[in-house]
Design a protein that fits this description.
alpha/beta; nucleotidyltransferase; EC 2.7.7.60; binds cytidine-5'-triphosphate; Nucleotide-diphossugar_trans; binds magnesium ion; 2-C-methyl-D-erythritol 4-phosphate cytidylyltransferase activity
Length: about 220
Amino acid sequence: GPVYAVVPAAGVGERMKAGIPKQYLTLAGKTLAEHTLGRLLSFSPIDSVIVSVSSQDPWWPTLPVASHRRVSTVAGGKTRAESVRNGVAQALMDGGEEAWVLVHDMARPLVRLSDIQALMEQCDEQGAILALPVVDTIKQSGEDLHIDSTVDRERIWRALTPQLFPAARLYEALSADLDGVTDEASAIERQGGRPRLVAGQSDNIKITVPEDLPLARFYLARQFE
Ligand code: CTP
Ligand code: MG
């Protein structure tokens, strides 16, 4: 079926402390939003891109990419999960029961096409997500902050985006209680699904705090070496 990219972009970027939502900050002469959408639009298996935008957002309409013929918007929600649900609902309406959705944070401008390719190739009916194996030794603590145990690192992963699912399956999962749902896979897991993990690249960072911007500048330059 058709593949829709769903891009939540209705956050305010509180931790970035920039005065404007972080997706409109500039990296190497382009906004983060344009970096992210440019990459998704240049990946040919993606038929169209649905962006969740806040109704109070005066910046979005000023971007050239906002009028791209394969880009449309839906209303953002109070939480990321609600913003994603609105986008997935639109994908289902446009693409029908056979549609797939590739959910990707607007705040991850450095995603590589080779990673999106790997995600699509390794995905099965259960869906799949990009993830990174943790590199630190992981401790489980009690409430008293003393260590109870060391967790086997081999099986601990950090979830990234994109995350790829059949639209109907994800919509159903996101129609349940969203309390504590911080990514699409966690909603699917609650329904008993077991999405596939696909190892991604560590430069696919989520721009979150001020120091992430110089880091992104470094990674971006390195991607074009
Ligand atoms: N997002 C969204 N709707 C929300 C909250 C977040 O679409 N109600 C989006 C953000 O725009 C971002 C992605 O989800 O692209 C990841 O969220 P995060 O990194 O937390 O961004 P913000 O919520 O904007 O940042 P903060 O939590 O620091 O305020
Ligand atoms: Mg947030």
